[in-house]
Amino acid sequence: MSANNPTARKNHNPKIAMVLSILLAGLGQLYNRRYVKGIIFIILEVSFIVTLAEFINYGIWGIMTLGTLQGTDHSIFLLIYGLISIILIAFALTLYIANVRDAKKDAIRIRNGEKTPTFKEGVRNVWDTGFPYFFITPGLIMLAFIVILPLMFTVALAFTDYSQYTQPPRALLSWVGFDNFARLFFETGGAGNNIWQDTFISVFTWTIVWTLVATTLQISLGLFLALLVNDPRIKFKRLIRTILILPWAVPAFVTILVFAAMFNDRFGAINTDILALFNLSIPWLQDPFYTRIALIMIQTWLGFPFVFALFTGILQSISKDWYEAAEVDGASRFQKFRNITLPHVLFATAPLLIMQYAGNFNNFNIIYLFNEGGPAVRGQNAGGTDILISWVYDLTFELNQYSMAAAITIILGLIVTGFAIFQFRRTRAFKEEGNI
């Protein structure tokens, strides 16, 4: 093509354009005779260097050292400045890469003799093809500083020694690597135990048990009640459905506080009015075992109405012809439930049910409002009913163990992310699936 094209410039080298763009943004465009674009890139780079170079230099120094003068340097501020500098550098590198690629692309066009658009044509093309990006960009910038920056800060804290004994600016923070994670998983104290490891194992185990048992019970109860109400022999279905959905209408925090009063060991209605008839009194708020049972029952009460409403809608969409065909084949009630009802319900609601498990895994409200994660457990720095998220809250606002809280938050985030990825994969599988 270039051999037959008189406008082709074989001596125009794209590598030179790339090198010039790397040396200074815009030089490659000037080499390609795209003067307006080149001047814009030069202005952007020079402005970036003049206005932000000193801040970025200070931020990088701060995140590397976390300060050198005790009582003067504030390690937390230096850490934040450093993270902001990293985000700014990421934005700058993105534009720099775009500048280099643009210079190379134009140079190849010139060498092949292709027509290069004028500045006005380039602006029009960018506006036509990049219109969505112009509106997305402000949101992405806000996302970087509102969401990504706090996440980066949390991750960074997990690798420091930030605690009540190292409060800036009275003391300087230090990078400790994976020591915080090692304290949770591997280290053993001098007496043969490690309070962090023991507490983490206990809290993590209870979190898993809580998530599986409480969520499975609320799903099972919701399915059982939906099957009963959907039975054709049941009358007054609308009234029954309204009554069963009422717990969902009351704000959860109100219900939890009411149950906390009902389960109170001294004056609660459970002990004084119900169990007293059998000469029983259970320490609901003093014994971790009974407190956990109470929490599971309360969560089952709070969670089943949503599942009931969800399953009710799904059950009504199942064709009656399937059940009639199954009856002709001599299928029992259990066989119809196992082969028709259950597959159809799970097929339609599995992603939402997975979200129920993920939600209960991080269900802070019920744990904190019922008994603030208590009762206390000897040899641990978490309550007997604390789950990971409530333990993080205690470490942050009561014990001031910020770095350990950040480390646990990372572990918590990875687990929840695994739930989310599994859910998205299942959702995609359902969309691609044809029939049951």
From TrEMBL:
Q: Which SUPFAM superfamilies match?
A: MalF N-terminal region-like (SSF160964), MetI-like (SSF161098)
Segments crossing the lipid bilayer: 39-64, 76-98, 133-159, 203-227, 239-263, 289-311, 340-359, 402-422
Give the domain of life: Bacteria
Q: Name the Pfam families on file.
A: BPD_transp_1
Q: State whether keyword Lipoprotein applies.
A: no
Question: Keyword annotations for this protein?
Answer: Cell membrane, Membrane, Sugar transport, Transmembrane, Transmembrane helix, Transport
Which InterPro entries is this protein grouped with?
A: MalF_N, MetI-like, MetI-like_sf
Bilayer topology: Multi-pass membrane protein
Family statement: Belongs to the binding-protein-dependent transport system permease family. MalFG subfamily.
Name by which UniProt lists this protein: Maltose/maltodextrin transport system permease protein
Q: Which organism is it from?
A: Jeotgalibacillus proteolyticus
